[in-house]
C-alpha cells in the first residue's frame, strides 16, 4: 500500500480520479484540494486526495 504522505503530480491525480488536469486545477484553485509548489511543479498529497473524496461522499450521502 502506498504511503499516505506520497506526493502526486496533477496528471497523476487526474488519472487517479479519472478527470482532466484542468478539473484538478479547479479543485486546487477553489481550495477543495490542497497542493504545494516545488519549483514549477504542483504536488498533491495522496492523503489529501483521499480526504477530498471522503468529504464529497459524505456530503452526497447527506442529501435527501
UniProtKB/TrEMBL annotation:
Signal peptide: none annotated. One of its GO terms (molecular function) is DNA binding. Pfam families: HTH_17 (PF12728). Residues 11-56 form the Helix-turn-helix domain. SUPFAM superfamilies: Putative DNA-binding domain. Keywords: DNA-binding. This is DNA-binding protein. It comes from Nocardioides oleivorans. The lineage of its organism: Bacteria, Bacillati, Actinomycetota, Actinomycetes, Propionibacteriales.
Amino acid at each position: 500500500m502506498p504511503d499516505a504522505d506520497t506526493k502526486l503530480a496533477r496528471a497523476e491525480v487526474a488519472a487517479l480520479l479519472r478527470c482532466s488536469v484542468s478539473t484538478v486545477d479547479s479543485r486546487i484553485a477553489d481550495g477543495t484540494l490542497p497542493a504545494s509548489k516545488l519549483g514549477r511543479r504542483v504536488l498533491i498529497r495522496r492523503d489529501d486526495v483521499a480526504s477530498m473524496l471522503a468529504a464529497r461522499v459524505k456530503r452526497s450521502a447527506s442529501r435527501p
